[in-house]
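Quick check before the chapter quiz. The format below is the same one you will see on the exam, so make sure you can read both the input and the output lines.
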Amino acid sequence: MPRPQSAPLIIFPWHQPSMPVKKFLDGQINALVSKIKIIPNSATCSAGDRVSATITLTLKKPVHARSLSARLYCVEEKKVEVKREMDPYDYRMDKELGIQRSTNLRTTTSVSQAIPFAETKEISGEKEYESGAYTVEFHIPESAPHSQYWANGRKVTWRMEAKLDIPMSMDVSSSAEIEVC
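Here is the expected output.
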C-alpha cells in the first residue's frame, strides 16, 4: 500500500509569526543587547581573605530570568609528557617519508586540568530583572593554591564569573581574573 504524501508547506510573505515565536525572538534580541559586568573590588588578595565583587546589569528593558549567580573557581593546569615506543610500522613509515628520528620513542605533551576549588552563590532567584548593581562576597580557603603562570609545568588561575540565566534565550555572562597571593 503506498504511503500518503503530505502537502507541501507554503509560507506566504505576508504571514506574521505567531506570538510564541515573536516572544522567543524578542528574548534572543534582548539577550544580545543585555550586558553584565563583574568587577572584583580588589584585583589581588591572599588565601584566607574575603573577596567581593560588584555585578552590574545593563538591560535594554526588564528581563524575566531564572536567577543571577556568581562563581569563584580555581583552575590548575599541568603539562604532562608521555613517552611511548612507536610500533615498527610507524617508525619505518616515518623513515620512508624522510622524517629523521634518532630513536623509536615518541614524546607527547598534553595539558591536564583540575578544579581544586569552586564555589557558586545565587545572588537572586527567579524574577523580573532591571538594570542595576549587585554585590557578592566569597571566602578563599587558607589552603588555596596561589596564582602562578607556568612555573615548573604548572599554571594556576583564579576567576570570578557572573551569569544571568534567561529561560529560552542566551544567558548573559561575564568573567574576571583575580590574583591570589
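If your answer matched, good. The chain is about 15% helix and 50% strand.
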